[in-house]
Amino acid sequence: MAKKPRDAGRDRARNGSAPAHVEEVAIDLMAGGEQRSRIVVFSDIEMGGGGPADDFPHTPFLGELMTAYLDGPDADLPVDFVFNGDTFDFLKVSYQGAFPKHISAEVALGKVESVAAAHPKFFEAVRAVVEHPSGNKRVFFVVGNHDFELLFPEVQQRLREHCGGSEHVIFPGFDLMLGSVYLAHGCQVDPVYRMDVNRLFVEHNGEKILNIPWAAVTILDVAMPLQDLLYHHDRLRPKAKALELLPEFREVMSAKLWNYWQKVYWKDFRAKDPVHKISWSMVREAFRRSKTADADLELADDWTDELLDHDEVQAIVVGHLHRNTWVEYEGKKVIQLGCFRDEYWIRDEGRVLEPRLKPYLEFDLRGGRLMHAKFLEVQGPAREPGTYPESIFDVVPKLREMLARIKPNPRSAVGDDL
Q1: 37-70 as b/e, with b when 16 or more CB fall inside 10 Å?
Q2: What are the chain's domains?
Q3: Which helix (H) or strand (E) holds 226?
Q4: 122 close to 129: Cβ distance less than 8 angstroms
């Protein structure tokens, strides 16, 4: 059953956690039918806790982009800023020097404070937006696989406080509708990152923790101990080229993943750790990725079909994959919005890294219906010296040392005990 909209048709922000089902996508257009509004969408910013490993140290730049919409001839136009998941890189923010996989509200709030301390200009910009004299500017934070912590009411309240306490800072869950535009991060249609919407939290040692998916558990257990060494290599694109140029990188990750899924993950599963879940699809995917070191994300092929069949939906926007695509189906748009974080194209066999342009979207609506859609890209500021290695090959000696410590495993060609 469709929910009654909060704002007579300008939007129907979904405060629940489950993705929208097609029968819930019905949209009531704004009374009068002629009200103009604007939607500005950013995805996968992944601002972290500061330092070299922070993938987006440019929040003053982002703040300037946001506040530019507060002036000029359209200053009084209703504007919704949608941060479409992975706005905050809580997944890779440490808590008390570690990366716990049992994430309680206390742990999540600690991560919030680390991000807020590193990015005050972002929260100042959000506050300027929601406190604009027009009173018609709002900010939405959609949940992504890097910021599942947004599901905690305590985190929502703390972030709202950092933004001035306005009710115009909204946490819709995994998706929302604004007029005829459907927005979701996309992790809920990625089988390795999908959360159980009927069981978002579980109990562990008497404490409520996030019921994070197995891929997030694996990153925390396997990848994060290597963050100090390989933080920059996660930003390289194409990933296949990075693995080709750095075979030691592929070998180390393959060995670590193989050993983890053979031993550690199963051990914790047998010990009744609630975030260690087992399914056939998980085992199959874990085996494939441990052999290839392929960490590329995927979305289910048919997830847009029901939405596209609904007459009221004119555009579907997802992020997650860090790829830009814009496809038309009989006048309806399916848009993959790439990442706003720092990433680099590999050029000249790794000797040159070209900063990737940062994309965002702008939609203009009239009476809730799409009248204009624009894809924009901007060049972000350069990173400060010392926040990236001089060469992507600087890590090779350390990776070779790690490989030399691998004990031969007669049951596997990969090795044992990294």
Answers
A1: bbbbbbbbbbbbbeebbbbbbbbeebbebbeebb
A2: 27-416 (3.60.21.10)
A3: none
A4: no
Q: For residues 402 and 359, what is the distance between their CA atoms, to the nearest angstrom? A: 37
253 neighbors 293 (Cβ within 8 angstroms): yes
Residue 51: what residue type?
G
- Residue 148: C-alpha distances to residues 112, 207, 212 (Å): 12, 17, 8
Query: Rg (Cα) of the chain, in Å, rounded?
Result: 22
What mean pLDDT, rounded, does the chain reach?
87
Q: Which of 56, 88, 122, 59 is nearest to 342 (CA)?
A: 56
- Among the residue ranges 6-15, 135-144, 374-383, 395-404, the one predicted with the least confidence is 6-15
In order, the DSSP letters of 67-100 are HGGGSSTTTTS-EEEEEES-SB-GGG--BTTB--
Distances (CA, A) of 324 to 57, 172, 182, 337, 338: 22, 24, 17, 5, 5
User: How far apart are the C-alpha atoms of 7 and 357, rounded to whole Å?
Assistant: 35
Q: Quick check: 91 and 143 in contact, CB under 8 A?
A: no
CB 112, CB 155: distance < 8 Å = yes
Q: H-helix or E-strand containing 207?
A: strand 207-210
Q: Between the ranges 43-47, 293-297, 384-388, where is the mean pLDDT highest?
A: 43-47
Cβ pair 129, 66 in contact under 8 A: yes
Consecutive H or E run containing 286: helix 280-292
Provide the phi-psi class of 409: left if phi over 0, else alpha when psi is between -120 and 50, else beta.
beta
Residue type, 417: D
User: 310 falls in which pLDDT band (50, 70, 90)?
Assistant: confident
pTM over 0.90: no
- Map residue 411 onto helix, strand or coil: coil
